[in-house]
Amino acid sequence: MKLSYYLCLMVSGLTCASLSIAAGEKESAFDCYLRAAKSGQPEAQYRLAVMYREGRGSQKNFEEYLWWLNKAAEAGHVTAQFELAARYQMGGNLDETPQEEEARNQLAAKWYRRAAEQGHVEAQWIMGILCRYGTGVPESATEAVEWYRLAAEQGHAKAQCDLGDMYEAGEGVPQSFVEAELWYRRAAAQGDEDAVKALEKLPEKAAGEEDISIDIDF
Question: How does pLDDT run across 14-63, given as a tens digit for each residue?
Fold first, then answer.
C-alpha cells in the first residue's frame, strides 16, 4: 500500500482515540488505538499498552500490556523503552538465581541505553549508575561519567550530584574539587539534599585548590 494510506490510517486512528477519550468513550478509544497499533504506529502501540495496564476500555491484561509495550519499544518509542527497562529492573523475585538476575539486569540496561541514546534524561542518569557499578553492563567509571554528564547538562539534579561525586572521588575523571563543587552547587540549587551535604564537607578537601565563583543561590 502507498505510504499516504498508512499516514492517513495513523493520524485517523490517533485522532479518533483522542476524540473518544475527550468524550469519555474509553471503549471506543481502545478500538481506535488498537486499529492504529495494528497498523504499526508506535505511539498507538504504547497508548494501547497503557490501556491494557490500567484496564481502560478493556480488562486489565498484563500479558497484552507487555506485548504491546515491547512492540512500541522495538519500534523506537522512547517512553516505552524506558518503561520496559524499569519493568525488567523491578521484575526480580526471591527465587531468582544469580544468572537470572544478571540476564534481567542486562535486558534492563539494553532498554535504558536505547532510551538514553534518544536523549531520555532519566535513562541517561540510570545508565550512569549502571556503568558505575557494573549492573547489567561492564563496570566503567569513564562511561558512567559520560552518561552522568549528558543528564547533568540537561539539568537533572541527581546526575549533577553524582557527577560532582565522580569528580570529588576522581572516578572516571581526574580528581577536581573545583569541578565537584560546580556540579554540587548546580544540584543544590535545585534542592538536592545530597548535594547540599556534600558541599558542607567539601571545603576541607578543596583547601589549596583554585577557588571558583558560581552565581547560584540555594
Answer: 445 554 444 455 557 888 889 999 999 999 999 999 999 999 888 899 99
CA 125, CA 144: separation in Å to the nearest integer?
A: 9
**According to CATH, what is the number of the domain 13-75?**
1.25.40
Q: Give residues with Cβ within 8 angstroms of 145, minimum separation 6.
A: 128, 163, 166, 171, 172, 173
Spatial separation of the C-alpha atoms in residues 205 and 201, rounded to whole Å: 8
What homologous superfamily is domain 108-205 in, according to CATH?
A: Tetratricopeptide repeat domain (1.25.40.10)
Do residues 66 and 80 make contact, with C-beta atoms less than 8 angstroms apart? no
Q: List all residues 6 or more positions away from 91 whose beta carbon is below 8 Å from its beta carbon.
A: 104
pLDDT in tens, 108-156: 999 999 999 999 999 999 999 999 999 999 999 999 999 999 999 999 9
CA distance 195 to 189: 9
Packing angle, helices 193-206 and 157-169, rounded to 10: 20
